[in-house]
Amino acid sequence: MESVVRSQSSVGPDTAAPKDATLIYRQSRWTRLTHWLWAISLFFMLLSGLQIFNARPQLYIGKESGFAYNNTIFAIGAENTANGPRGYTEIFGKRFDTTGVLGWSGPAGRETSRAFPSWATIPSYYDLGTARVVHFFFAWILTTTLVVWLVASLINGHLRRDLAPRIDDLRRLPRDIADHARLKFHHRREYNTLQKMAYGGVMFVLLPLMIITGLAMSPSMNAVLPFLNDLLGGRQTARTIHFIVMLLLVAFFIIHIVMIFAAGPINELRSIITGWYRTDPPAAHGSKTPQRSA
Amino acid sequence: MAKFEIGPKLQISRRKFLTSASLGVSGIMLSGCDAFDSQLGVGDGLRSFLEGANGLTWRAQRLLAGDSLAPEFTEADIRQPQRPNGVTAPDDDVYKGLLANNFADWRLEVSGLVEKPLSLTREQLMNMPSRTQITRHDCVEGWSCIAKWTGTPLSLVLDQAVVKPQARYVMFHCLDTIDRSLSGDIKYYGSIDLFDARHPQTILAYGLNGKPLPVENGAPLRVRVERQIGYKMPKYLRKIELVDGFATIGGGRGGYWEDNGYDWYGGI
What we know:
The structure holds two protein chains of two kinds.
Chain A: H1 2-7, E1 23-25, H2 29-54, E2 58-60, E3 72-81, E4 84-91, E5 94-97, E6 103-105, E7 112-114, H3 128-156, H4 158-163, H5 167-181, H6 193-216, H7 219-224, H8 227-232, H9 235-263, H10 265-273, E8 276-278, H11 282-285
Antiparallel strand pairs in A: 1-8, 2-3, 3-4, 4-5, 6-7
Chain B: H1 8-31, H2 45-65, H3 93-100, E1 108-112, E2 118-120, H4 122-127, E3 131-138, E4 144-153, H5 154-161, E5 169-181, E6 184-193, H6 194-197, E7 203-208, E8 211-212, E9 222-224, E10 237-243, H7 256-259
Parallel strand pairs in B: 1-10
Antiparallel strand pairs in B: 1-2, 3-4, 4-7, 5-6, 5-10, 7-8, 7-9
Organism (chain A): Mesorhizobium wenxiniae
Transmembrane segments (chain A): 36-53, 133-155, 197-221, 241-263
Main location (chain A): membrane
């Protein structure tokens, strides 16, 4: 455990050697700042994105949207039935009744036809123009923050020390999965294998894919990078991927929140707000786990 | 950053901070997304601040895109008629009169900041050099449609009218009523800057998929601005006006949809 505490001294100037050895400085100010900027950006991008989707609640595969032919793989809509209007969601031609949430929703007696419900969109009423304003503003924030984080993490060693996969991670994976399944958490300085996979997946796969598919939908960017849509399978496929990655990011967010509550919300929140994280007392696991040097 | 001691005092303030932070987040979640509605109307402070990003996008894409061409497709990619959108059958008497006569009396007026104002017939436009391009139309709603467009490059018309140096934008005035207000019918209007106006793919289209432009797609003449979204390509053209700003036109934001909250630059 000693080595863990000593290794922190290289992190930054605000690393005061704490009297309590289990309290370590885990997250640099760059990680914390960018984390919260992403949290805010992704919140607004999700809700404005769902509003944008509502303008055309269908997803297609290919270069264009089929009107005289069918290349729709996903659709949300409303239809009149004998029991009044119903909302539906159609996935690969299979239709599900989603009245109340998708397709047909709103306060009792004042339901309207809208793909995603009012509570899930910004603005709450239908306004594509405003949603685009909000979406593109936060797209700039998100992308800039990602670049700042990448540079900072290369310099301060966050990438190399915390996120870079190691052979050891692979060896620990089965035990990690078993531990997570039993909601048994170790509080160490290092991320466990599943954490590395989740964070690495978001930072290096999902967010870049989100930006790339977002750019692929821009007609001006198509002139700059014409190969992008060829690579992705066409603008409408890019739009579909953009939507699917959104679902994956939402799934990550839910798991992220559940894990924070399972692992101890005060300690986890403290580390991403102040940087300080309370690790398990050395007796709990110290001798069994080889410590890594930074 | 100052070093700090982990003491009881800090513990309390940290706890307070955590509590208020989580209360704040859950407050936003609970109140739903109408929490932001009141700050997002056109002209509101927050809205105007967020709109600043559109200027950034415009400059960044200008820098990157230069005069590069929008992707063009092949005949095999044309798999359906061009989907019409917005006004598809103008109900205006003037328009219906022109249509009844197959647009023989229609003229494209070119005015404003030009040395030689023009009044062009459809035949005059069709006798000028033309450009045909198979491009993808991207609607702001999210759908796309590939079609073949034929028309006169706008730059040729601008050259013929000789644009004055102080002109910055091309304003399009249309024949179709898009909206009604207390002060009367609002005909569709929109604008692009001279850079996009002079782009080789920016054409005044009179042909679609090898046939004359149909009414639902903007007959007799519509604009194609291939590196922007559909609402930047007005249909049923009547007049092209060269201006140095659009503060006095409509709501002052450069177009009908812009006056209703859409970004002026539609490259994204």
